[in-house]
Amino acid sequence: MAETVFSKILRGELPCHKVYEDEHVLAFLDIFPLSKGHTLVIPKEPAATLDQLSDDAAAAIGRVLPRLCRAVMAASGATAYNVLQNNGAGAHQAVFHVHFHIIPKLGSDGLGVGWKPGKLGADDAAALAAAVVAAL
Question: Are 46 and 26 in contact (CB under 8 A)?
């Protein structure tokens, strides 16, 4: 995996405002926040995208993410928030180390999302579901 700013943070070469750490996960405040309390949650295991992450590292993040969301909401005063995770440049990933954003929604501060839903026909859905099952 290529060197990233998160690699340097994990090695202690760059500082961060740490809010949580265990043997598998590190969470710290984003230095370019969308809102007060914007927090990044990263695995210590190096992986560029979520599909490359081991089951154990993914489970470690899954165990602490709800607790971190509650803490960020309490500290920021938010009553709503987004959890965002991007994979690949085409999906707006800028740092190629798996990371989750916890972004409190405080008035107009926070994540803005555009959503253009399409339609999925029954035949296409059946074929796609079968393809996903086969890939598992």
Answer: no
pTM: 0.91
From 17, 38, 92, 99, active-site residue: 99
Return the CATH number of the domain spanning residue range 5-112: 3.30.428.10
Task: Give catalytic status of residue 38 as yes or no.
Answer: no
Indicate the SS3 state at residue 109. Answer: strand
Residue 82 CA: distances (Å) to CA of 29, 78, 109: 15, 11, 12
Q: What are the domain boundaries of the chain?
A: 5-112
pLDDT along the chain (136 residues), means of 10: 93 97 98 96 98 98 98 97 97 97 94 86 92 94
